[in-house]
Design a protein that fits this description.
Structural class: alpha+beta
Helix content: 40-55%
Strand order of the largest sheet: 1-3-2
Order of helices and strands: HEHEEHHHEEHH
Distance between the termini: 71 Å
Number of strands: 5
Number of helices: 7
Strand content: 15-25%
Radius of gyration: 26 Å
C-alpha cells in the first residue's frame, strides 16, 4: 500500500476517533447543560401555603397545614382542614385563583404580574390575586371592563397559582 493511501486511512481512523470522543463528551455534558431528561423538580407550593377554599368560606387568607396536602396541576396545595381539601378535590377550578394567580388588572393593562396571595378579592364567586393593593383598587373602579380585558389576554399562561 502506498504512503498516500495509508495516510488517508489513518486520517479517517483519527476522524472516527474524534467523532466518538465528541459524542461521548456531548452525552456526558448533557445533564449539566439541562438538555437531558431529569427527574421532576420538587413541586411548587400554591398560594404560599394558604388554603384556597378558606378564601371563599372565610373571606381570609388562612394558612394551610402540611397534614392536608394534595397535588393538582403539578402544584402542591395545602388546606386548613380535611373538609376544605375534600371541597377542593370536588371542584378545584372553583377554588383555585383565576388566571392561574396573575393579577387581572395587570393582564387588562397588557402585562403579566404574579398576584400576591395576601392581596385578594372574590369577584363573580372566583378568587382573584393582585400584585398590589393599588391594582386591586383600580380593578374595582371598573371590574366588568377589567375582567373582560383580562379574560381576552392569554399572557396568564405563565402564571403559577400565587407562587
Amino acid at each position: 500500500m502506498d504512503n498516500t493511501r495509508k495516510l488517508g486511512l489513518d486520517f479517517y481512523r483519527l476522524l472516527a476517533k474524534l467523532w466518538w470522543a465528541l459524542v461521548i463528551c456531548i452525552i456526558i455534558t448533557l445533564p449539566i447543560s439541562g438538555f437531558a431528561y431529569s427527574a421532576p423538580r420538587a413541586q411548587r407550593l400554591a398560594l404560599h401555603g394558604y388554603d384556597p377554599v378558606a378564601y371563599q368560606l372565610q373571606k381570609a387568607a388562612v394558612s394551610g397545614s402540611r397534614e392536608y396536602e394534595l397535588s393538582w396541576q403539578n402544584v402542591l396545595w395545602r388546606f386548613r382542614s380535611e373538609g376544605n381539601m375534600a371541597a377542593f378535590m370536588q371542584a378545584p377550578r372553583v377554588y383555585a385563583p383565576v388566571f392561574a394567580g396573575c393579577d387581572p388588572f395587570a393582564l387588562a393593562d397588557g402585562h403579566v404580574a404574579q398576584g400576591n396571595p395576601r392581596i385578594f378579592a372574590i369577584y363573580q364567586k372566583r378568587l382573584l390575586l393582585f400584585y398590589s393593593r393599588a391594582n386591586r383598587y383600580l380593578f374595582f373602579s371598573d371590574p366588568h371592563d377589567f375582567w373582560n380585558s383580562a379574560v381576552r389576554d392569554k399572557k396568564h399562561d405563565g402564571c403559577r397559582y400565587g407562587q
